Structure formats: structure tokens, C-alpha cells
Automatic annotation (TrEMBL):
Protein name as annotated: Uncharacterized protein
Species of provenance: Didymella rabiei
Membrane topology value: Multi-pass membrane protein
Subcellular location(s) per record: Endomembrane system
GO CC annotation terms, alphabetical: endomembrane system; membrane
Keywords per UniProt: Membrane, Transmembrane, Transmembrane helix
UniProt key word Transmembrane: yes
PANTHER family linked to this entry: MYND-TYPE DOMAIN-CONTAINING PROTEIN, OS02G0130600 PROTEIN-RELATED
A Pfam family: Far-17a_AIG1
Length: 306
């Protein structure tokens, strides 16, 4: 298998993509229920973003942060934070979740009502992008949650808005990813996708320093060379190692989910067959073919037929 072919990146050479409809079906719920769940998560995500931006437009949020080698400090966020949010990995990931659930819910609704989806007709490059998109939204939110609650959070904020925002963008983001992993029937992503995920992380690092150059602030304090270049290198390597670990854990979870789903399906089929046999045994009908033989006639001595 050549590296620079669509087959090597999980896109079949056949014209019909996702022939088993794994992106729009679930092992546990119907396509319509799956579409509704994705739509609800999409609505909540975008509602969170809209409400947050609306609140920040006229209020100021106080966020307490720290890092493994940096003491606690506070940042003030107000209307200027709306534009700056597009430089934060946390908000970029949250926006990505919203758009993923928007697109996937539309695909799933279409499949539920028409038994076909746009995924089947898209060019191969868009099919590949959708598959990679799925891999990103089921892995990157965990990195956000682990890093924030494990190394950056310096305490529970006092304001209700800050509390809700922290739970939404640093907690529910991973819950949404878990829902997608558990409910969808997708196959485990090819390991080649890991290179794209790491490439996106590297591109974000460039975006963060571009923000420093154009807007004059460090998105995350650990990026400041004042804390030492060694600290920056260790952070980058640590996040890369964490992303690799998360990718393999998610991939293994998807494989385990599919294996359990197959076992449950086989057990269900076996139970149905056993119940069918018991029903036949308890009824007056034959469960096997019965051949009917026409009785032969005989004649009496007087010539009459009996």
C-alpha cells in the first residue's frame, strides 16, 4: 500500500464512501436518535459561545491560572477577549466541536429520512477531511481538559459565569467527545491520522507565536521565553506525548466498542434463534418439512373401490 494514496489514509478506492454507514449510524441507538443527540450538542456548543461573547461584551471575567513551573496569576477578560479567543486552543477546539456536530447531525438526519447522505457523493479529499475531522474532535478535547485541570487551573473561580465557562469549555468538551466515541459506529482511525493531528498541534504553536507578534501577548504563559527555553521545549514535548497517548487510547476504545457491539449483536441473534426453536417446540406446527403421501386405493372382490 503506497503512502500517498487515499487507501493508505482510510478512504477506499471505490466510489461509495463509508459503505457500512458507520459515520451516521450507531450500535446502540437509531440514526434518528443519533442525529437528535448530535443536534443537541451542536446547539449547546454554539449557545455557550454566543452567551459567553455576549456576556464578555459588557462584563469582565477574572480567571486564575498557573503552570507546573509558574505560580498562580490572574487574567482579566472582557470585550477584547472575544477576538483573542480565536488564538486559544481551548476555544478553537470548542468551535471545532460545534461545527462537527452541526455537519454530522445534518448528515445523520439525511440518512435517517433518505437512507443516504452527502458523504456518499463527496469528492475523496472531502471524505478524507471528514474522517480526519472526526479523529481530531474525539482526541483533542481530552488534551484540553487534562492540561487545564491538571496543570493550569489555580482554583475554583468565584463568579458564576467563570464557573460555567470553565465547566463548559474545559469539561463538557470531553464529555461531548466521549458521547461521540461511544454512540457512533465508526471504525478506529488509521494510525496515519496521528501525523495530521500532530501537524495541527505544530501549526497551532506557530499561530500562538504569531499572536504574540501581532497582538503583543502570549496565549499561554509557558510560551514566554522569560521562563526559560527548556521549559518551552519540555511543554511542547509533553503535550506531543500526551496527544500521542490520547490518540492510541481513543483508537483502542473504538476498537473495544466495536468488538463489544459485535458480541452483543451475536448474542442477541442467538437468543432470537433459541426463542424461535422453543416457540416451534411448544406449538402444534412443525418446524421441519413434512411430506404428504397420497393413500393408495384398494378394490374389493366385487370390484368396488374402498
Amino acid at each position: 500500500m503506497k503512502l500517498f494514496t487515499y487507501e493508505a489514509w482510510g478512504v477506499p478506492s471505490a466510489d461509495f464512501f463509508d459503505i457500512s454507514t458507520t459515520f451516521v449510524t450507531s450500535h446502540f441507538v437509531s440514526p434518528l436518535v443519533l442525529a437528535l443527540i448530535r443536534a443537541v450538542l451542536c446547539v449547546y456548543t454554539f449557545t455557550t459561545i454566543i452567551v459567553s461573547y455576549s456576556w464578555l461584551a459588557s462584563n469582565t471575567a477574572t480567571i486564575g491560572l498557573k503552570d507546573v513551573n509558574i505560580g498562580s496569576y490572574e487574567i482579566q477578560q472582557s470585550e477584547h477577549a472575544i477576538g483573542q479567543s480565536f488564538s486559544f486552543f481551548t476555544f478553537l477546539t470548542f468551535w471545532s466541536l460545534g461545527f462537527y456536530f452541526l455537519v454530522s447531525s445534518l448528515h445523520t438526519f439525511m440518512f435517517a429520512f433518505r437512507n443516504r447522505t452527502w458523504l456518499h457523493d463527496w469528492p475523496k479529499i472531502l471524505r478524507l477531511m471528514h474522517s480526519v475531522y472526526y479523529s481530531c474532535v474525539t482526541s483533542m478535547p481530552f488534551l484540553v481538559t487534562i492540561v487545564f485541570w491538571g496543570t493550569m487551573n489555580s482554583g475554583w473561580p468565584a463568579g458564576r459565569f467563570e464557573q460555567w465557562m470553565n465547566l463548559s469549555v474545559h469539561g463538557l468538551n470531553s464529555v461531548f467527545a466521549i458521547v461521540e466515541i461511544v454512540l457512533s459506529a465508526t471504525k478506529a482511525p488509521p494510525f496515519s491520522y496521528l501525523s495530521i493531528v500532530l501537524l495541527l498541534l505544530s501549526a497551532y504553536l506557530g499561530l500562538a507565536y504569531l499572536t504574540r507578534y501581532t497582538q503583543g501577548f502570549y496565549v499561554y504563559e509557558w510560551m514566554n521565553p522569560a521562563h526559560g527555553n527548556v521549559s518551552i521545549i519540555l511543554h511542547v514535548l509533553g503535550y506531543a506525548a500526551g496527544m500521542i497517548t490520547i490518540f492510541f487510547l481513543v483508537s483502542s476504545t473504538i476498537r473495544l466498542r466495536n468488538m463489544l457491539a459485535r458480541q452483543l449483536s451475536q448474542r442477541r441473534d442467538t437468543d432470537i434463534q433459541e426463542k424461535g426453536v422453543k416457540l416451534d417446540d411448544a406449538s402444534d406446527t412443525w418446524s421441519s418439512d413434512v411430506s404428504m403421501c397420497r393413500p393408495q386405493t384398494s378394490r374389493r372382490n366385487d370390484g368396488s373401490i374402498v
